[in-house]
Amino acid sequence: MRIISGLYKSRKIVAPKKLPVRPTTDMAKESLFNIINNTFYFNELIVLDLFAGTGNISYEFASRGTEQITCVDQDFGCIKFINKTASEFKMPIQTIKSDVFTFLEKTNFQANIIFADPPYNFTDDAFSKIPELVFKNNLLLEDGLLIVEHSKHTDLSNLINYSYSKSYGGNMFSFFEIQN
C-alpha cells in the first residue's frame, strides 16, 4: 500500500502478510479522499478509524495534516503494526485494541469522520449495527460523516441516516450523516 498525498506522498508501507486484513485499494482510497477534500479541512478533523486493520486510511489522514486520529481494531498484530508505523513516521495516531462494537457501545468519543471498514462477509445485522450505535450514542459531530466501506454486493441504503453511496471497482463507500 502507498500513501497517495500529503507529507508522506508516495511512501510505501508494507504490512506483515499474517495480518487478517484487506486494505482499501489505492484507486478507491484516492476517490474517497477526493470526496473528503471537497468537504473538510484535514487539519481541523477528528478521525475515528474502525476495523483499522493496517491503518491504511489513518496514514492517509495523517499525511494530509489531520492531528487527531484514533484507530480501533481487535487484532493485536494490527494494533502493533499501526503503532510501529505511526511511530516511525511520527504520525499523531492513537490506537485502541477492542472489539469495535464493544467500543461503540461504551465510548463517548466524538469525531468529524468515522470510517469503518469491517470484513466484507459481515451479515446485514452486523453492518446495520455500525450506524445504529454511532447515531444512538451521538458519536458523530455536527456536519460529520460516517463512511462504511463494503462490497458492491452489500446494500446499506435502508440503514439509519444513510445519505449516498459511491462505487469504485468492487469497493463501495456508503455515507451517513446526521439528518435534521
Automatic annotation (TrEMBL):
The keyword Transferase applies. The keyword DNA damage does not apply. It comes from the Bacteria. Signal peptide: none annotated. Its EC number is 2.1.1.171. It holds the Pfam family Cons_hypoth95. One of its GO terms (molecular function) is nucleic acid binding. PROSITE patterns: N6_MTASE. Keywords: Methyltransferase, Transferase. It is an enzyme of class 2 (transferase). This is 16S rRNA (Guanine(966)-N(2))-methyltransferase RsmD. It comes from Mariniflexile litorale.
